[in-house]
Amino acid sequence: MYLTKEVKKEIFKKHGGNENNTGSTEGQVALFTHRINHLTGHLKKNHKDYNTERSLVMLVGKRRSLLDYLKKKDIQKYRELIVELNIRK
């Protein structure tokens, strides 16, 4: 599987402060971004996989709402996260 426990821990350690802080907004956005990148690569090969396409759209919406929350809460962290994860907008 592409998303193992070690990968999740490393993502949350890098973006959430420590590996046990799984509820941080930055960590959640980083995890969603990792999953979105994986699903995008999958859809490039399997363009008729509509269930994955729907899942991808829902994930992008969740990430967008978390980014909007972070933007209202702390604009500086939002800007840093956007640059670090290479997210448009």
- Fill in the CATH topology: Helix Hairpins
Strand content: under 5%
- CATH H-tier superfamily: S15/NS1, RNA-binding
Instruction: Output the CATH class name.
Output: Mainly Alpha
**Overall tally of structural domains:** 1
Write down the overall geometry: globular
Distance between the termini: 30 Å
Alpha carbon gyration radius: 14 Å
Question: Keywords for this structure?
Answer:
mainly alpha, Helix Hairpins, 4 helices, globular
Your description of this structure?
The protein is mostly helical and 89 residues long. The protein has one domain: Helix Hairpins (Orthogonal Bundle), CATH 1.10.287. Helix content is 75%, strand content 0%. It has four helices and no strands. α1 crosses α2. The longest helix has 24 residues. It is globular and about 40 Å long. The model has no long low-confidence stretch (mean pLDDT 93).
Compact overview of the structure:
This protein is mostly helical. The protein is 75% helix and 0% strand.
Fold topology:
Layout: H1 5-15, H2 25-45, H3 50-73, H4 75-85
Helix pairs in contact: 1-2, 2-3, 3-4
